[in-house]
Design goal:
CATH superfamily: Glutaredoxin
CATH architecture: 3-Layer(aba) Sandwich
CATH topology: Glutaredoxin
Number of domains: 1
Structural class: alpha+beta
Order of helices and strands: EEEEEHEHEHEEEEH
Distance between the termini: 34 Å
Number of helices: 4
Strand content: 25-35%
Largest sheet: 5 strands, mixed
Shape: globular
Radius of gyration: 14 Å
Length: about 170
Amino acid sequence: MAERAGIVFMKGNPLTLTGEERKVGDLAPDCELLDISLAPVKLSSFRGRTCFLSTVPSLDTSVCHLETIRFNKEAEKLDKTIAFLTVSMDLPFAQKRWCEETKSKNVVLLSDHRNGELGLAYGVMIKELRLLARTIFIIDKQGKIRYIQYVKETSEEPDYDAALQALADIK
């Protein structure tokens, strides 16, 4: 299993990412995740739509909460052919509670808690925490990765402007 250190940090301390590193131009790996109703969802089911895929450590942290709220608002303004997906290791029950509390309906929350399939396939599993790193992948309608953003410090929000501009350029 591939490991990379020094890509992301927690309070300045380097963390180790486990899994296959993905690059722009790669075909996005298909993974099976669970939605908030515990139904299995394959990433390939979004093929034909541009996917804005964000991974976060946990929706129960302030930064992940703020980030997902922001993307929910952005998704509301954009074409519905764009799928906004947020994946975490949170249990589907916690994700459902979060959706209900925030009244979020535009971002599809998916859980990777069972086996970390997405975390390992996309190389964003934090070995020390068994959580996902804060990243953004934009996948085009043909299933190719067109943009990647790693947020270096897990306690910081992503560069929203850069990610949304990349989405506009790809769409």
